[in-house]
Amino acid sequence: MPHLTSATAGTTSTGVRTALGIPGFAHPLVAPAQWAELARPGTPLDWVVLDVAAGPGTRPDPHCLEAAGRLRAAGVRVLGHLDLTHGTRGSADLLVDAHRHLDWYRADGFLLDRCPSERTALPEVRRAITALRTIGDTAHIVLGHGTHPHPGYAENADQLVTFRGPWSDYRFSQAAEWTADYPPDRFCHFVHGVPQGHLDEALRIARWQGAATIYFTDHTDGGGRLDPWETMPGYWDDIVSRIGPGVSE
Fold first, then answer.
1. Is residue 231 exposed (0-12), middle (13-18) or buried (19+ Cβ within 10 Å)?
2. DSSP character for 8?
3. Residues 6+ apart with CB under 8 A from 238
4. Which residues of the chain have pLDDT under 70?
5. Any alpha helices (H) in the chain, and if so which ranges?
6. What pLDDT, on a 0 to 100 scale, did the predictor assign at position 245?
């Protein structure tokens, strides 16, 4: 296990702006106002994940086409959701979904969710990334480990999700020492159950640990029964104003 440290060297002087990465809201038919909110000028977004039906679905979805088109018109990067199922999914099946994301929704890249993190799985993940870059040579690749993986993964993707979990764990978390060798814009943190009164503390932790892409929400996973990412946090305007230009009323 890599040595851990509570802060990453040099993060206070990198000048990298913190931005939001949206793990994926509920379907645009269910949450149209929230998807529309993402396209508002001044929202500090790094990217938004489009998850139609545990992937791109089996046919183009008109509501998702509209939502993705609105985001692209606003200059927001859209990533297609691909589930690696902890390394058990076949590459052919993965590429079918990737092609659908590209052909139907003109995805700018992919979030590879449930990505394995151990060294032994690295060659297979590397082959999958190579195949994805073959069909989309400018694709932005984010590996959704949810924990610190073997350092070798950082050499193969644009970004790594190195924390995904509750605030109760995040506030006492530490960054792996090897992450200090990379700039903050290589790492993402997704944290649920963050009380509004602890937003500043959560942002400090992300900066100390060298993660420039974040998503914090006050929603919880209900002990694993709920999806905390499917709706905007109750303090959306607050967090937007703290990390970037405020959203005008």
1. middle
2. -
3. 196, 199
4. 1-16, 245-249
5. 32-38, 62-73, 91-105, 122-135, 167-170, 199-208, 236-243
6. 56
